[in-house]
Design a protein that fits this description.
The protein is mostly helical and 101 residues long. It has one domain: Multidrug-efflux Transporter Regulator, Chain: A, Domain 2. The protein is 67% helix and 9% strand. The mean pLDDT is 94.
Amino acid sequence: MTKEFWTISEVLEIFEMRRQLLAALEEEDIVTPRRREDDGESLYSREEMEMLRVAKILADELEVNLAGVDIILRMRRQMIEMRKQFDDILADIAEKLKERL
């Protein structure tokens, strides 16, 4: 079974991330974790974990500020979505070509 959500303490340990960076990413709505109903603890999905991984690299290794991290992550998301759309178009074209043969 693969894990679906991670807690704050797990995120901080996995990425060796400063709590201040994680708080700033949440405050700027760069990541928006779910809240557990019983205790309100933040839970991070796989998608958010990937965003946190990239955000840490950008902030800590490349010294990109939060505004830059936000812009880069938004552009990255858009590029991924565009790639999916392009793949769908190619699959549709391939299917139509098969029908003609």
